[in-house]
Design goal:
mainly alpha, binds cobalt (II) ion
């Protein structure tokens, strides 16, 4: 699932390896008893005012109340989704659908209401805005942005969209069952048309796709993405080819081969990893779901993840748990001062994904990490892992293989899967290609970038849930996450010379605390770009990711980086 921003709130949300977000509940009295800052705007059951409350103070207090309620509604929605994915009985779908629709409509109504608009207008006036604290200024900005966006979409458009997305999702499920893209094509055509209309309604400067990108990554544009992806493509395609041609292949004898890893033990190991990462089980929990995700109901006070298991392949639960754990540390790490302000969440999908990828790839797929954790894993699976060395394990968890399916992709091929989708989305929105030609276009690009041709639409153009509900502009944030992760980890290593040896001895808390302080604490008070600049000294730069890939895979596959 994903961030419920103003304009995406009505869209059904993809549930694959992403962060499910919405917002925060919990009574204020509870909050005050849990050590949240007092005397601020949070908790005033019987307010005491020294002197006369100014108009600005009064309006700001009212706005905070409204924003808190919007967060509560979002939290209720997220709770409904979380339950649906983890515990809800199979026959209860209709009831849940009605509940979630009502919550979503109520939220949209509240967000676009005149009374909220008036409060925002007053507080946005320069002379009033200047009197506000930095947090209050950020609240006004964020809710103002969401209000303006939501107002641009007429309610009949939202209803039409929501209906088409539901039908689209059903058609996609049927098309997958029949392995037949044509069943889904008419719905997808409608969804593309609606997305074009949405771009027009929201407005854009240069490219209609910019308006859609902004729903997931504030301020991101085609003009910024194109050169980034060009640079990546130029290096990744030859790197992949060199790896495929390399005679070095990891020995995967402890995956499959009749080896079984009990789910209970895998679950316990996942819990152990989360604890080592600093996940707070008093403010969160882990459950099992088909598609792993992270969600929160009142961050940073209730943040939950789900994971999944394969009985014959440990990599599934380890990867999913650490990935979602990274998302969860972000939400748990937001300052408690931001609770119920509309700001207690990750600043963008790309930055959020960077936190999950950093833990999943840079940390939990590194050799130092397994120096410490392989012996721990062996304690739980002594027979299955008998004779497996750290080198062998490290090689296997970094096995690079071009494959059809994005969610199974390794670090090297992953961004190629994203580029393909980005290019198709952009051209669909531009009207340069047609939905009916997608299977052909998809397969051609797969051959070009990954050197493989999907054996079916099921393993090709029909594989992702995103388009079934019309989520265009989402995919690029996955790639941004990979790039930000490499850039941020590079800075972390410089600022913490001990980092590698800490990881090697299983001490993960210093890294978590560094991320808390530098990335998580500010929540949505700063944009992804501002955070990157403040922490790493520059805006998004794909060089760090390519350096990271070449260093790691150059060594693993004995390759030399060609000069470009
Ligand atoms: Co994710």
């Amino acid at each position: 699932m994903t961030t419920m921003t103003a304009s995406t709130a009505f869209k059904a949300i993809p549930l694959q390896n992403t962060v499910a977000k919405t917002n925060r509940p919990i009574s204020l009295n509870f909050a005050s008893s849990k050590g949240l800052p007092k005397g601020d705007h949070f908790v005033r059951s019987s307010p005491i005012y020294f002197g006369k409350e100014s108009l600005v103070e009064k309006k700001m207090k009212q706005l905070r109340e409204q924003v808190g309620k919007l967060d509560d509604l979002g939290a209720a929605e997220a709770l409904g989704h979380w339950d649906m994915e983890t515990r809800m009985p199979s026959g209860s779908g209709e009831a849940r659908g009605a509940l979630l629709t009502t919550l979503s409509e109520t939220k949209h109504k509240k967000l676009t209401s005149k009374s909220l608009g008036n409060l925002i207008e007053v507080l946005q006036k320069k002379e009033n805005f200047q009197q506000l604290s930095p947090i209050d200024q950020a609240i006004v900005k964020e809710v103002g942005r969401n209000h303006t966006k939501a107002k641009k979409l007429p309610s009949n458009f939202v209803t039409e969209y929501s209906k088409t997305a539901t039908e689209g999702h059903e058609a996609w499920v049927k098309a997958r069952e029949a392995n037949d893209f044509e069943i889904f094509a008419p719905s997808l055509e409608k969804l593309v048309a609606l997305n074009r209309q949405e771009a027009k309604l929201l407005g854009y400067q240069e490219h209609p796709y910019d308006a859609l990108l902004d729903n997931f990554e504030e301020g991101m544009t085609v003009a910024q993405l194109d050169p980034i992806f060009d640079a990546l493509r130029k290096e990744i395609v030859p790197l992949l080819k060199a790896i495929v041609d390399s005679p070095i292949k990891p020995n995967t004898n402890f995956i499959g081969n009749g080896k079984k890893y009990g789910q209970k033990s895998q679950f316990r190991f996942s819990e152990y990893l989360l604890k080592k990462m600093g996940f707070d089980f008093k403010r969160g929990r882990m459950d099992v779901a088909i598609h792993p995700f992270t969600t929160s109901f009142g961050a940073p006070l209730d943040v939950r993840i789900t994971t999944r298991f394969k009985p014959d392949d440990l990599r599934e639960s380890i990867g999913s748990t650490v990935h979602e754990g990274g998302h969860a540390l972000y939400e748990q790490g937001v300052s408690p001062k931001l609770f119920r302000t509309g700001l207690a969440e990750g600043t963008s999908m790309g930055m959020h994904e960077s936190q999950s990828r950093l833990w999943e790839n840079q940390v939990a797929q590194s050799k130092p990490f397994w120096e410490h954790f392989l012996p721990q894993l062996k304690k739980r699976f002594p027979k299955q892992l008998d004779g497996v060395s750290v080198e062998q394990f490290y090689g296997v968890i970094n096995d690079v293989k071009p494959s059809f399916i994005r969610t199974d992709a390794d670090e090297v091929t992953y961004n190629l899967h994203i580029m393909l989708r980005y290019e198709i989305e952009k051209e669909l929105i531009e009207g340069r290609i047609e939905v009916k030609d997608l299977p052909k276009i998809w397969n051609k690009k797969m051959e070009e970038y990954l050197g493989v041709t999907p054996d079916s639409d099921l393993n090709g153009v029909l594989q992702d849930v995103h388009w079934s509900s019309g989520s265009f502009g989402y995919f690029p944030t996955y790639a941004l996450g990979n790039l930000y992760a490499a850039q941020i980890f590079n800075t972390a290593k410089k600022e913490m010379p001990e980092l590698e040896s800490q990881i090697e001895t299983g001490k993960l808390l210093p890294l978590k605390q560094w991320l808390n302080k530098n990335i998580h604490d500010v929540g949505k008070m700063e944009t992804a770009e501002t955070i990157a600049k403040r922490v790493t000294g520059e805006t998004l730069n794909p060089t760090y990711f390519m350096d990271y890939l070449w260093q790691k895979y150059g060594e693993l596959y004995n390759l030399k980086r060609p000069s470009l």
